[in-house]
Amino acid sequence: MPVSRDRPLKQNIRVWYNYLQTAIKHKYKINIKYYRPWHLSQVKRMKFDEWWRTHQHLFAHKEFVTVKIDNSLSTADAIKEVKKQLKGKIDKQSSFQITSDRFRYVQVDDYLKCWIRRNEKKQTYHKIGLDMLNEYQRKEKIYAKSTKLIRRKFTNKTLEKFTSDNNREILLQVVRRKVINAQKIIENTATGQFTGKY
Question: Which of 30, 54, 33 is CA-nearest to residue 42?
Answer without folding.
Answer: 54
